[in-house]
Amino acid sequence: MRDGLLLHRTAIRIIGRGVWIELLRRQDLYVCGMLMVLFLLGVAVVRIVGIEAPATGTFMLNMGLSLSTMTAHILTLLLAVRQFPTEIENRTLYPLLARPVRRADIVLAKWFAVGCCGVAVYAVLAGVAWISVPKLEGYASGLLLQMLLLQLVSLFLLSGLAIALSLVVPRGIALLAGGSLYFAGATLRRLVGRGDGVRPVLAAYIPDFGMLDLTTRYTDGVAALSSVEIVLLLGYGCGLVLLVVAFGVLVFNGRRL
Amino acid sequence: MSEAVIAVSDLSVTYGRGGRTVHAVDGISFTVSEGECVGFIGVNGAGKSTTLKTLMGFLFATSGEALVWGQPAGTPESRLRIGYLPEVALYYPFMKARELLELYGGLSGLDKALLRDRIPEVLAMVGLAGKGEILLKQFSKGMQQRLGIAQSIIAEPDLFIFDELTSGLDPLGRHTLRTLLLGLKAQGKTIFFSSHELVEVESLCDRVLIIHQGRILRDATVAALRAEGGTRGLEGFFIDLIGAAGGPQA
Prior knowledge:
The complex is a heterodimer.
Chain A: H1 8-25, H2 28-49, H3 54-89, H4 93-97, H5 103-132, H6 141-168, H7 171-193, H8 199-204, H9 215-219, H10 227-253
Chain B: E1 4-17, E2 20-33, E3 37-41, H1 48-56, E4 63-68, E5 71-72, E6 82-85, H2 97-107, H3 112-125, H4 141-153, E7 159-162, H5 171-186, E8 190-194, H6 198-204, E9 207-212, E10 215-221, H7 222-229, H8 233-244
Parallel strand pairs in B: 3-8, 3-9, 6-7, 7-8
Antiparallel strand pairs in B: 1-2, 1-4, 4-5, 9-10
Helix pairs in contact in B: 2-3, 7-8
C-alpha cells in the first residue's frame, strides 16, 4: 500500500488471480487438453508404426507446434473477449471498481492475466508437442527461442486487442473481429492498404499475426533470424501491444458503466 | 455528526438515449454527515441508481460536484473507505465464496493473514457460515445478495453505499441485514442506501431523501416525514408526495 492506494502490481496480481481461476475452472481448457490428447495419440501411432522419413517427423512437429499456437491464441481470444462484457452484464465490475483501484489498473490486470494464461497454455502444449515428436532433422535452437519469444508477444497482443475490441463493440462482434484479425490479418492489411490516401496508413495499424509466427520457418530447418530482424519484429509486436492496451485504457477510462 | 462524508452540489447527469437527452439527475444537492444513516427513495427511474453510481465514479457528472470524504467522487482516493453493494450482482460462477472475498478484500488492501480470519467472520455475519468453499454457481439469488453484503463489509469501511439494499433477500435475509446495519450504525458508520422497502427505511434511517424525476423532492428526518404521513407513516407520505408531483409516469 502507498498512501492507502494499492500499488499497480498488487492490483494486477489480485485481479490476475481471478482470471487464472476462471481459466482453470471453465471448460475451454479441457477442450484444449482433448485436442492435445488427440495429437499425442497421432504421434503414438506414428511412433508405433515407426518414423523413417525425416519429413514425417518435421510434419508432425509442425502440426504439433501449429496446433499449440492456434489453440493458445483461440483460448486467449475467448478468455479476453468475455472479461469486460461479462463483468458489466453480471454487475461484478461495480464491486471491483468500488475498491481504491484505478480503472487503468483493471484493464492492465485483465490484459496481463489473459496474456499470461495464453502463454501458460502455449508453453504446456508446445512443450508437449516438441518433446513428443522425434527430431530427425536439424533445427536451429536460436530460431526456437526467437519463435517462443514472438509467440509470447503475439499472445499478449491478441489479449490486448480482444479486450480493447470488447470495450467498444458487443462480445460476439469482438470475437469475430479478433478472430478475423488473428487468422486473416495479413489479407485484411493488403485489402485495406490498396489505393491512396489514408488507406495505407490505416493498413499499417492492422496487426499481422503471421509476422510473429516463426513455426514453419523453424520446422523447415531455416537459420535463425539476424539480430536486426528479430529486434524489428519484437519492436513491431510490442509497439502494437502498447497501442491496443493504451486504446483499451483510454476507452475504459471514459466509459459510463 | 459533523463532517460531510458525502457532499453533492447542483449535480446533473445527462445522457443520450434513442436520440433524445435524458436528464437522469437534474441539479440535486444534499449532504450526508458522518455517522448518519440516510435512505434514498423514489420510484423506478427516479435517479437513485444514477446518483449512487455517480458517487462511486461509475457514471460521470454532466455538471455540478460530488465529493466523498472531501475527494472528487470516483477517484481511487474517494473510494478508500467505502463499502458498496450494487443492485443484484451475479458473482463469478467459477469462484468459491472465499476466493471472491479474497479478491475484493485484497483489492481493499487487506493482507492474506488478515483475510484468513476475516472471511469466516464476515460470512457468519451475513448468514453464510461454512459456505466459503462452495462454488458461486451453486448460490441462490438470496445467497448472492448476502455475499454482496459480505464483500461490502469485508474491509470494515466507514461509509456504506447500498443500491437497492434488500433486493433478492427473503424475510430471514432481511432480518439478518437489518441486524447487521443496526450494528454498523451503532459503531458510528455512515450509511447511505436506496430502497423500495419503505418499512426498512423507516426502521433504519435517521433521514430520508426523496428523489423524483431527477430532482430531490424532500430532505427531512424520518420522524418529520412520519408525522406528516399521519397513521400511514412514511409510505403514506411518499405516495401522497409522488401523487402530488404528477405520479410515477409524469
